[in-house]
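Hello Y.,

Per our agreement to keep a running log of every chain we model this quarter, I'm adding this entry. I've kept the format consistent with earlier entries: sequence first, then predicted structure.
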Amino acid sequence: MKIHFFTVVLNGQPYIEYHKRLMEHLPMHWHWHVIEGMVQDAGLPSRYHSGGRSVDGTSEYLDMIEEGDPERITIYRKPLGKLWESACEMLNAPLGRIDEACLLWQIDPVDLWTIEQIEQVCRLFESQPSKSAAYFWCWFFIGENKVISTRYGFSADPQKQWLRVWRYLPGDHWIGDESPRLQRRGCFGSWLDVAMLDPLPHEATESVGAVFVRRAYVLREQVLLEQAYGASANLVDAWERLQ
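Predicted structure for the entry above:
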């Protein structure tokens, strides 16, 4: 089973460095596509980016690993000073280079998986060829030692969280602005949502131990960036009280 991982990132340190170390130990063929930058309507203050690129060392790290492993790592960027038009444009950037059937696996910089989890998910797809996508639960960290333990609420809405893997076929592409969906050409020119065809539910992936760790609100810098994106004017104060 071949895997094409993809990551959208702006200021992904320190977690962005975890993933390549993990992938190097995977037994299957893989390629990592990293799309760096920000979209035009993000509205981030200039202190969070330089010409639309990271300012925390992420850009330099990505340059280094692509130079060291160009056969398996590809970085996608706009020219310096240019911004991506939309999240959909960012997601579609790598698809022209993927000319084989594979698993298309989204890894956010803060999503931490294990080798065993990735292997188990591959086995699920291999044993069930009709399955088109997979949903997962995650351990959502909101502090260094604080994790959300309840489900069916914040960070654990099974109606939309967490769709992370799709069975990709050449010609599939992303459609939509707010929440892009991977689409496939169907009969009579219609488009089908790949994730809705025959997905693996949360229970199936949890049964093989595939519950990943998401360290989204662990560092104060992460919360500051989220507040800058417009999540909440008092997000940092609330997070500090929570700690």
